[in-house]
Amino acid sequence: MPPIELVVTDLDRTLWAEERIHDRTLAALAELELRGVPLLVATGRRQRSARAGLMRAGLHVPAVVLDGAMGRDHDDRPFHDATFLPDDAMRVLEAFLAAGLEPAVYVDRPGVEVVVGGAPSTHPEHLTYIGEGLARDDLRRVVAREAVYSFAVMGGEGDPVRAAAAGVGDAGQPWVSEGTLLPGTHVSVRPPGVSKWAGVLSWCADQGIDPAHVLAVGDGENDLELLEAARVACVVSDGCDAALALADHVIEPAEHGGWHAVLDLLER
């Protein structure tokens, strides 16, 4: 088999644990660069959040963010955008509002990544975490006039969150989880057909890389399309069952520097 032409990695609990990259992983990343194998990040995080953590580790790499809705090079050059159709975005918003929830709406304004209304339902700590990238506006007006990448409520009450997810229908892809970052129930809704792998394909087309020669590293349900499509799928041992079922190789957790095992797989 020809060598791997691109390594794609998730961030949280995969490349890093609580934004700390193990020394063994840092050494592996340096060796990857020496070998001339490019690295692409694929994460559910926002662009600013992903970039800040990577820069603290001295990493300037392209990233597919928001679970595949957006792709930006290390210098913020766009290479991938997958937004809701306006009618679908409004249907998703109305599903949240009908469940009594005001979601966070992910956009791409200068200096603004997330817009909320007057009474946001997402957890206050989520808003604090967004920080300077947050703005307040009329959500219906935003959805009617701007490109929307994602909707989310973090740390909400279970029944309303699940009702909102059920009400989305085919207007979007809802993903519901429990207590992954904050206490409570979380839901994010991405555009139909969007996945991390879709962003990877855009980067491959941009760079002239054969997507048949990709090694992917992940751990969660939002990595499933990526892991299934990659030629080599590496999954962290504490990943979800569905991801582990797709694994060609299982590696140690991020806090033990398990990512370094990727180097041994580049010629396979």
Task: Provide a short characterization of the protein structure.
The chain is α/β, with parallel strands linked by helices and 268 residues long. The protein has helices at residues 23-34, 47-56, 86-98, 124-130, 139-145, 158-167, 196-207, 224-229, 241-244, and strands at 6-9, 39-42, 63-65, 70-72, 78-81, 104-109, 112-116, 134-136, 150-156, 173-178, 185-190, 214-218, 232-236, 249-251.
Task: Describe the protein's architecture and organization.
The chain has nine helices and 14 strands. With 268 residues, it is α/β, with parallel strands linked by helices. The chain has an eight-stranded mixed beta sheet, with helices on both faces. A six-stranded mixed beta sheet has the order 8-7-6-9-11-10, sandwiched between helices. A hairpin with a 5-residue loop joins strand 4 and strand 5.
Features:
Rossmann fold, 9 helices, 2 domains, alpha/beta, about 270 residues, about 25% strand, 8-stranded mixed β-sheet, 6-stranded mixed β-sheet, globular, Hypothetical Protein, Haloacid Dehalogenase-like Hydrolase, Chain: A, domain 2
**Mean pLDDT metric:** 95
Strand order of the largest sheet: 5-4-3-2-1-12-13-14
Task: Determine the number of helices (DSSP H or I, runs of at least 4 residues).
Answer: 9
CATH architecture of the largest domain: 3-Layer(aba) Sandwich
* Structural class category: alpha/beta
Question: Given the C-alpha coordinates, what overall shape results?
Answer: globular
Domains (count)? 2
- Major sheet description: 8 strands, mixed
Q: What letter string, H or E per element, gives the SSE order?
A: EHEHEEEHEEHEHEHEEHEHEHE
Task: Describe the oligomeric state of these chains in a short phrase.
Answer: single chain
The count of β-strands is 14
Q: Which consecutive residue ranges, at least 5 long each, have pLDDT under 50? A: none
Radius of gyration (CA) equals 18 Å
| CATH first level of the largest domain | Alpha Beta
Helix content: 25-40%
